[in-house]
Task: inverse folding
C-alpha cells in the first residue's frame, strides 16, 4: 500500500490547521507580529511605542489625580472669595452710618458665622481624604483653635513635584498661607484709637509717598503716637512723636471739620472728624493677622458697639483698618486661585498633548504589528473552506474499493 498519499494529506492538513490557529490568534489579539522572530524590525518598533504608551498612561494617571485635588482647592478658593466679599459687604453696611446698634449686633452674628465657615474651608478635605491646605502635613487638620479660641496653623509650606509629562512637573500641594499671611491694616501700619478717646476723630491711611521709608517702618518695632490738643479758642492741633522724638506738628483744617493730610514714615494719613482734647492714636508697624483672627475682631467690634459718637468713631477706626486687612486676604485668595488655575491649565494642556502622543504611538504599534482584519478574516475563511473540502475528498477516497490498492 502506498503511504505517500496519507503522508501528504496529513502534512497539508497540519499546515492548514497551523495557519488557521495563527489567523485566529491574530484576529483575536489584533496583532500579526507577536514575537521578535516573526519580524524583528516591526517587533522593536512596536515595543518602543508600547513603552511610550505606558509612560503616557502613567502621566495621565498623575494628571488626573492632581487635577482632582487642585480642582477641589479651586472650589475652596471660590467659596472663600465669596465669603470674604460677603464680610466686606457687611462691614460697608456697618460703616454707612445708618445702621442701628441692634442691627450691628445682627451683623456681628453674620460675621461670627462667616468665621466658622472660613474655618471649615481652611480645613477642607480633598477627594483623596487629605486636608487641602496642610502642605505636606496633609493628614492633620491644618487650622485648630487652642483653649483661648485662637486659631493656629499646624500645616507647613511643603511642596511636592510630580511629573505630568516629559520634562514637565507640577506642584501637587497647596498650603494655608492664603489664610494667614496678610499684615494688619494696610500692610504697612495699623492705626488704633486710644480707648479713652472722647472725640470723633479718625486717622486713615491714604497711600504711599515713600516706599523705602514705609518698608523701613513696617520692618521696625517703634510705633508713632499722634496726640491732639484743643486750645481755648477751639483750634485743634496735633503732634506726632516716635521714641520721644517729634516727627510732625500742625493744626487741623477748619477746626477738624475738614480733612487734614499728614505724612509719616512714608505713608500719607488723613485725619477726619473732631478729635477731643487729649485724644491720641497709635500708628504701629503692621504685623501678621490671620483671616480667622480678623473675622473674630470684626465680629467682636460690631457686637460691642454702642451709640455714643466717640464709641462710633472708635468702631469705625477698627472697621476701616480691618477693611484694609480684608482687602489683602481678598487679593491673596484671588492670586492663589489664579496660580492654581495656571497649574490646572498646564495639566489640561499636558493631558491633551499626551493624548495626541498616545494616538500616534498606538498608530505606530498598529502599523508595525497590527492585523489587516478584512484580509485575515478572508484568508481564515478560505483556509477553513479548503481544509473542509480536503477532508471530504479524503473521506470519499477512503470509501473507494480501489483505494486499498493504491
Result:
Amino acid at each position: 500500500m502506498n503511504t505517500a498519499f496519507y503522508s501528504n494529506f496529513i502534512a497539508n492538513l497540519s499546515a492548514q490547521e497551523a495557519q488557521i490557529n495563527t489567523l485566529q490568534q491574530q484576529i483575536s489579539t489584533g496583532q500579526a507580529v507577536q514575537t521578535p522572530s516573526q519580524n524583528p524590525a516591526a517587533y522593536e518598533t512596536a515595543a518602543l511605542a508600547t513603552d511610550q504608551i505606558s509612560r503616557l498612561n502613567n502621566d495621565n494617571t498623575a494628571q488626573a489625580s492632581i487635577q482632582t485635588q487642585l480642582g477641589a482647592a479651586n472650589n475652596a478658593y471660590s467659596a472663600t472669595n465669596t465669603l470674604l466679599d460677603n464680610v466686606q459687604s457687611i462691614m460697608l453696611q456697618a460703616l454707612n452710618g445708618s445702621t442701628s446698634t441692634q442691627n450691628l449686633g445682627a451683623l456681628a452674628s453674620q460675621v461670627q458665622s462667616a468665621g466658622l465657615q472660613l474655618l471649615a474651608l481652611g480645613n477642607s478635605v480633598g477627594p483623596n481624604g487629605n486636608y487641602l491646605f496642610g502642605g505636606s502635613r496633609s493628614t492633620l487638620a491644618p487650622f485648630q483653635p487652642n483653649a483661648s479660641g485662637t486659631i493656629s496653623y499646624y500645616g507647613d509650606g511643603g511642596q511636592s513635584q510630580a511629573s505630568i509629562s516629559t520634562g514637565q512637573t507640577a506642584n501637587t500641594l497647596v498650603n494655608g498661607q492664603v489664610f494667614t499671611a496678610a499684615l494688619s491694616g494696610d500692610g504697612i501700619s495699623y492705626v488704633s484709637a486710644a480707648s479713652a478717646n472722647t472725640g470723633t476723630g479718625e486717622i486713615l491711611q491714604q497711600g504711599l509717598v515713600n516706599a523705602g521709608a514705609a518698608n523701613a517702618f513696617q520692618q521696625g518695632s517703634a510705633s508713632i503716637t499722634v496726640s491732639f490738643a484743643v486750645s481755648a479758642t477751639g483750634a485743634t492741633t496735633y503732634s506726632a512723636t516716635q521714641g520721644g522724638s517729634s516727627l510732625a506738628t500742625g493744626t487741623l483744617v477748619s477746626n477738624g471739620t475738614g480733612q487734614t493730610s499728614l505724612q509719616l514714615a512714608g505713608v500719607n494719613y488723613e485725619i477726619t472728624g473732631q478729635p477731643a482734647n487729649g485724644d491720641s492714636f497709635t500708628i504701629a508697624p503692621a504685623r501678621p493677622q490671620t483671616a480667622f483672627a480678623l473675622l473674630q475682631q470684626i465680629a467682636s467690634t460690631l457686637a460691642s458697639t454702642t451709640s455714643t459718637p466717640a464709641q462710633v468713631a472708635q468702631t469705625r477706626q477698627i472697621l476701616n483698618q480691618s477693611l484694609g486687612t480684608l482687602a489683602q486676604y481678598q487679593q491673596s485668595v484671588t492670586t492663589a486661585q489664579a496660580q492654581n488655575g495656571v497649574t490646572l491649565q498646564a495639566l489640561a494642556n499636558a493631558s491633551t498633548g499626551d493624548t495626541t502622543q498616545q494616538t500616534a504611538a498606538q498608530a505606530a504599534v498598529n502599523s508595525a504589528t497590527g492585523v489587516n482584519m478584512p484580509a485575515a478574516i478572508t484568508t481564515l475563511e478560505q483556509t477553513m473552506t479548503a481544509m473542509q473540502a480536503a477532508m471530504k475528498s479524503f473521506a470519499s477516497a477512503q470509501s473507494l474499493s480501489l483505494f486499498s490498492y493504491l
About this structure: Residues 309-369 form the longest helix (61 residues). Residues 42 and 368 are 5 Å apart (CA to CA). The longest strand covers residues 202-208.
